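// run 5 | inverse folding | seed 20
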């Protein structure tokens, strides 16, 4: 079956799976009651929740190959392409700042406390860097650039002394000390403008952009494979074997250099990348090669407006927390009053009440995505 020219429905489905995972992780009814796989590793380590963002960035890399190669084939100059890339990146950054402004832990729209970095901001920076690399390097050079960046980041993370601390210690949490350069740089450059939950460090901080670029580069290399003339079975085999190889390398390297999402360590790039490859291999084989598409339709719908859903969900959630109403004799956030009144009493097990609220959020945003898809409305940020 020729799969080089048609749309990759498996990629839309994988993106939708990531959005489903994001909603499951980030919108519990009660943050104190979440199932363990839906809780991010507090520092070193890896959970199911830690796979969502790198998978999405991996998908960005795959999709970039299809869009950028088309522009090159149409005769667009590198300058014109990069101008388009920069425009999209600026939109992503502005959307990121908009969603950050709604965080309930800071004064709304306060430039003194506005978080500068974030998920969309990291995607924007990585998108620009990887687009430039794609236009200037061939496939082998992209591969070696990625390997070099992983080795360089390992050296930066483990071998360069931290001002005021000494040799890095990746086992020290940011709250307990500034023991690695990622935390130190964020504490100096982004002081007062970092995520409240990881001060003085930002989990989408400055230095972590380096290995995040490699996550996207991995996706780009996969995109080049999927656009090649190889048959579907061969492509699937390459995806599967490559995924297994990355998982094995990461697991061995983890003995000396821990897998850490917050730092986006080189081992985290390899480990999350391995799982992304295996998931895409399964989706690609079932959907694009074998033609089993019906089961994936809900994922595809949710994945087609990923940026819109991500941004809108954050803004709605933030507003929901900021609106105060009288409840049981005190001013309470509308979000908490709704949960306490309608969800918490339904089960004696608070985990079930919490996840039920999450399912409500998922159904709502799926409904929004379904309507937008029916009307052919998509946010192309």
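// decoded
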């Amino acid at each position: 079956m020729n799969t080089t020219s048609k749309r990759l429905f498996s990629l839309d489905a994988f993106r939708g799976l990531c959005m489903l995972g994001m909603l499951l992780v980030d919108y519990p009814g009660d943050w104190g009651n979440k199932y363990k796989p839906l809780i991010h590793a507090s520092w070193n380590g890896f959970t199911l929740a830690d796979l969502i963002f790198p998978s999405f960035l991996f998908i960005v890399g795959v999709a970039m190959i299809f869009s950028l190669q088309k522009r090159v084939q149409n005769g667009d100059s590198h300058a014109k392409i990069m101008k388009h890339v920069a425009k999209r990146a600026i939109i992503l950054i502005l959307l990121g700042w908009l969603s950050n402004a709604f965080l309930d832990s800071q004064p709304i729209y306060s430039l003194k406390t506005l978080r500068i970095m974030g998920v969309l901001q990291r995607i924007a920076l990585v998108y620009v860097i990887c687009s430039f690399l794609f236009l200037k390097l061939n496939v082998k050079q992209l591969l070696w650039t990625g390997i070099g960046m992983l080795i360089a980041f390992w050296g930066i993370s483990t071998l360069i002394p931290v001002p005021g601390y000494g040799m890095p210690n990746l086992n020290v949490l940011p709250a307990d000390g500034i023991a690695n350069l990622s935390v130190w740089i964020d504490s100096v450059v982004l002081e007062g403008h970092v995520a409240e939950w990881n001060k003085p460090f930002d989990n989408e901080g400055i230095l972590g952009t380096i290995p995040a670029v490699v996550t996207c580069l991995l996706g780009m290399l996969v995109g080049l494979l999927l656009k090649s003339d190889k048959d579907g079975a061969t492509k699937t085999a390459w995806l599967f074997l490559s995924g297994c190889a990355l998982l094995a390398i990461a697991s061995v390297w983890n003995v000396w250099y821990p897998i850490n999402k917050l730092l986006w360590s080189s081992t985290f790039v390899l480990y999350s990348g391995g799982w992304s490859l295996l998931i895409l291999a399964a989706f690609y084989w079932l959907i694009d090669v074998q033609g089993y598409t019906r089961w994936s339709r809900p994922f595809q719908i949710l994945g087609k407006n990923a940026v819109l859903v991500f941004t809108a969900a954050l803004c709605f959630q933030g507003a929901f927390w900021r609106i105060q109403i009288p409840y049981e004799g005190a001013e309470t956030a509308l979000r908490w009053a709704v949960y306490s009144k309608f969800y918490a009493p339904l089960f004696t097990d608070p985990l079930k009440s919490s996840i039920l609220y999450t399912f409500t959020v998922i159904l709502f945003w799926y409904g929004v995505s379904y309507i937008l898809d029916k009307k052919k409305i998509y946010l192309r940020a």
